[in-house]
Amino acid sequence: MPSRITRLSRRIAAVLAAGGTALVAVAFPAIAQPGSGVITAVRACTPGDYPPYSIGDGAGNYRGVDIELARGFAAALGRPIEFVPVTWATLKTDFVERNCDIAIGGISDQASRRAFADFSITYGTDGKAPITRRSNGAAYSSIEEINRPGVRVIANRGGTNEEFARTNFPQARLTLWPDNLTIFGEIEQGRADVFVTDAVEGRYRVRQHPDLQVLHPETPYDSFGKVLLVRRNDLVAATALNAYLATQLATGAVDRLFDQWIGPTASAD
Fold first, then answer.
1. 130 torsion bin: left (phi>0), alpha (psi -120 to 50), beta (else)
2. Mean pLDDT score, 170-186
3. Smaller CB count within 10 Å for the chain: N or C?
């Protein structure tokens, strides 16, 4: 299996895969919205600005790896899917206040998020890697090279990219950007030097921005799991979601989704 699938995911997938679809079908009737008897649609909250996981067009249409996983989950339940736009900065409050059943879009396994949601099984792994202009060569390969006075670091507000930048680049000049869509133009236009984000996103983004490069995506600075969020203490919903994800992992469907977005070379160990 590719390196995106953690050992834990492999073990869970092996246990659940055989009966995954049945578990989803059996578990679903008990999944309910607060104050209602039966859920009518799976409400999936997503920032929609983090390809290849989730990208929106501003008109309510979404695509990406997590989007397809959410659609497949809803289909397995026999329910429609409803995508609810949120931001990374407001994910904590929006997840509860907007009655999200799940949250998707390239969400990292982060301890602070367990305060307001439970996590699915890990369906992939990623890590932070720098994106800069090709004309800069390898100038910003290491944390030490970036963490210097005068280096202009940019990060999208409210997520793990901001947290990573604040922790690792205290000497650099940090600019917080309001979204994860137009941030790459700031680097292209020379208004920022480097952006450290998920390596998988970097691989995708440089396809659309040929003047940019992602440095050492195969050896990122760190490693963390990618998960979907589900309501806290909702064991029935979590079981249904995990059963569905386990089947997607075991059948290679997750890898095929990533390959469609970033190419099969990204699957190599």
1. beta
2. 93
3. C
